[in-house]
Write a structure and sequence with these properties.
By secondary structure, the chain is α/β, with parallel strands linked by helices. It has twelve helices and 21 strands. Helix content is 30%, strand content 24%. The chain binds NADPH dihydro-nicotinamide-adenine-dinucleotide phosphate.
């Protein structure tokens, strides 16, 4: 028995606009519950994450780590011959993997019985969508159109690139300027430097990664500077000019910088303009985000929205979760609200950050008394490499309940480590339960279960 009423007068039970992470997941799961589903896409399947985001980014991050690994290997007795990096090889191999993933998405959709409609979709009315002149009726419409890089309108901005282009550059620049202090800027600064590019990162505020734990932000800036990154805070570009030797950026203070590439990673805007949403009565926020209730329903009852188009927590796994919840709400007879608390995330900076729960600053606001456990150390591996890189690990505990309300790490494998610990935070684990857990020796992760004395309260 299905958990919903089929309206056979309409073409579909669900018409999804956008075959990115959220749209594909919502389509497949809904079809699995017996819904008749179509999804429209005007670009490659898989959206930002697969094509110009998480996946190619992580492949580039892997590529960029080798240089340091080669250097580190000397302390363990290795000597290597000439090292040479070939950007074209990386690009071709990356493109081949992305093409494979596009096909995997295609197969997943067709195996689930979802109709794929190629082309740009537009909402005509609350139950009708038009794609390239063809109209489709549906009981429900889901907008999962994602986001798009946004750049400030300064003179010469047309000479700059965004992450979209950074994945397809024909040549690796020799000198790059990265503008911004969020995930993308920090990750690309690391990728470029690892691949041997001379990088300057500019951030308009006093310290990058606003919203992350202050200790971790400060420690990352220190580590990056030790590695030779030219980090400039309270700095921004006023204008860009093309010269015979590259690009010249004039900063707010009047000084100039030359580079071959200027990458803007200054945030992303929901992709919601020009697809008939406002005309259909869908309420949008000032930045274009679709305003939704806790079940992802827009102001028009038959139109729903998930993922970056709603600008809630803009991460692929969150869009997947929102898609699963929506399928359950619409077609399983079990309404489910997505949960946006305690979402773990990683920044693949160098070294990387992993974090879940509250930052120290947020916990101080949320609880009367908190205890901070903190450990900063040189990992075992670096006792032989000679590297002075430090790992930072931090637990934030609500003293009244003894619950661990935040965990933060800066150091190798932070994302892998925090993913495991995020289950404990989700389950409401207490500090005593952390203490009762036996560590795995010798690892960095064991520090999280062996920190005994709070550093402050
Ligand atoms: P973010 O919103 O994270 O960061 C944007 C950065 O650009 C901020 O440092 C912001 O400064 C700065 N900025 C904004 N406007 C201007 C301007 N006009 N001039 C100069 N600087 C400006 O965006 P990203 O582009 O880095 O990432 C987009 C989203 O993608 C993120 O929300 C994230 O959720 C997701 N993402 C996640 C990744 C992961 O999980 N590892 C990886 C990559 C992306 P300020 O702080 O002052 O506002």
């Amino acid at each position: 028995m299905s958990g919903f009423e089929k309206d056979t007068h309409r073409d579909y039970d669900l018409f999804v606009i956008g075959a990115g992470s959220g749209g594909v997941r919502a389509s497949r799961i809904s079809a699995g519950y017996g819904a008749r589903v179509a999804v429209a896409e005007d670009k490659d399947l898989g959206g930002t994450c697969v094509n110009v985001g998480c996946i190619p980014k992580k492949l580039f991050v892997y590529a960029s780590h080798y240089q340091e690994e080669f250097e580190d290997s000397a302390g363990f007795g290795w000597s290597l011959g000439d090292r040479k990096f070939d950007w074209q090889t990386l690009l071709q191999n990356k493109n081949r993997e992305i093409a494979r993933l596009n096909e995997v998405h295609d197969t997943l959709l067709s195996n689930a019985g979802v109709d794929l409609v190629n082309g740009r979709a537009r909402v005509v009315d609350p139950n009708t969508v038009e794609v390239e002149g063809k109209t489709f009726t549906a009981t429900n419409i889901l907008v999962a159109t994602g986001g798009w890089p946004s750049v400030p309108s300064i003179p010469g901005i047309e000479h700059a690139i965004t992450s979209n282009e950074a994945f397809h550059l024909e040549q690796l620049p020799k000198r790059a300027i990265v503008v911004g202090g969020g995930y993308i800027a920090v990750e690309f600064a690391g990728i470029y430097r690892g691949l041997g590019v001379d990088v300057t990162q500019l951030y308009r505020g006093p310290l990058f990664l606003r919203g992350f734990d202050d200790d971790v932000r400060t420690a990352l800036a220190e580590e990056m500077r030790k590695k030779g990154f030219d980090l400039r805070f309270d700095s921004n570009i006023a204008s860009i000019e093309k010269t015979s030797t590259g690009l010249r950026a004039t900063l707010d203070d009047g000084s100039t910088l030359e580079a071959d590439t200027i990458l803007y990673a200054t945030g992303r805007t929901p992709n919601t303009a020009g697809i008939g949403l406002e005309e259909a009565g869908v309420k949008l926020a000032k930045n274009g985000a679709i305003v939704v209730d806790e079940f992802s329903r827009s102001s028009v009852p038959s139109i729903w929205a998930i993922g970056d188009a709603t600008d809630r927590v803009n991460l692929t796994p969150v869009a997947l979760h929102e898609g699963m919840c929506l399928a359950s709400t619409l077609f399983r007879g079990e309404p489910q609200m997505p949960v946006h608390e305690n979402v773990a995330s990683a920044v693949f900076s160098q070294p990387p950050i992993g974090s879940v729960g509250l930052t120290e600053e947020q916990a101080r606001e949320a609880y009367p008394v908190i205890d901070i456990y903190r450990s900063q150390f040189r990992p075992l591996k670096h006792t032989l490499t000679g590297s002075s890189e430090q790992t930072l690990m931090k637990l934030i505990v609500d003293r009244a309940s003894d619950r661990v309300v935040g965990i933060h790490m800066l150091g190798p494998d932070a994302g892998e480590i925090i993913q495991g610990f995020s289950v404990a935070v989700k389950c409401g684990a207490t500090k005593s339960q952390f203490d009762a857990t036996i560590g795995i020796h010798p690892t960095s992760a064991e520090e999280f279960v062996t920190m005994r004395e709070p550093v402050s309260s």
